[in-house]
Hints:
transmembrane helix; transmembrane; 2 domains; membrane; 6 helices
Amino acid sequence: xxxxxxxxxxxxxxxxxxxxxxxxxxxxxxxxxxxxxxxxxxxxxxxxxxxxxxxxxxxxxxxxxxxxxxxxxxxxxxxxxxxxxxxxxxxxxxxxxxxxxxxxxxxxxxxxxxxxxxxxxxxxxxxxxxxx
Length: 132
């Protein structure tokens, strides 16, 4: 059986009882964690660029704006989905559907005027619907 010399035990114990040891240890851990997070961020950024490139190619072939405008749900369509809207005009329900699609897809439909334009048109067509 091999014994650890008492001098080594004292040195190890003095390192752990050193007042700034834990601070230095935490700083080293923080440095390593941020370094890992930085590389993870770079990796995800390049994946995002790859997805964005593929998405823009997809968009040029099948523009979402045309699909969005042709398939907006009116008041009756919302009712068929068992989601009745408290609106009077069909235009307001279509604009609401457009705003939802733009929020969910993170894509602004410029033919309608973007998300802000859609909400402004919705507010003009029925002011009581957009009380926010």
